[in-house]
Amino acid sequence: MNDILTRIPHFVANHVLLVAAFIVIILALIALEVSRQFRGFRELTPGALVQMINRGEPLVIDMSAIPDFEKGHITGSKHIAPSQFDPENKDLAKARDLQVVTVCKNGMESGKAAKRLVKAGFTNVATLGGGLDAWRRADLPLAKGKK
Known about the structure:
- It is built from 7 helices and 5 strands, in the order H-H-E-H-E-H-E-H-E-H-E-H.
- With 147 residues, it is α/β, with parallel strands linked by helices.
- It has 2 domains: 2-37; 42-137, Rhodanese-like domain (Oxidized Rhodanese, domain 1), CATH 3.40.250.10.
- Strands 1-5-4-2-3 form a 5-stranded parallel sheet.
- Helix 4 (66-71) links the parallel strand 2 (59-62) and strand 3 (78-79).
- The longest helix is centred in the first third of the chain and has 22 residues, at 16-37.
- The termini are far apart.
């Protein structure tokens, strides 16, 4: 063990770029985790969302494009197009204290929507990590059509 500790300064001196890259990666990972803790919403797995739906808790908002929504969506989810999404909408504002879960095709649009909901004062917001792609990979059922 003592031999390893004496070799570290020599390794660092000979591999400065490698050590610098390692430090940058570690700092980026730490920053990512810290930002996740303070973003105001959580990311759910498909299994966790199924449990919530079975308990009847969440309002699931699907942010997919209309053709994608009609091809397949989570049963009971409400469709809101990203261009029409407004957290201050009177119908959506009624759900301010409910559990709200945003969903989209791959999780990108729903993450933006979740941030907007938190900023608008929603207290219990989550998003489906990986979106409907993750839902499909988990082999969970999808409803087809407009409702």
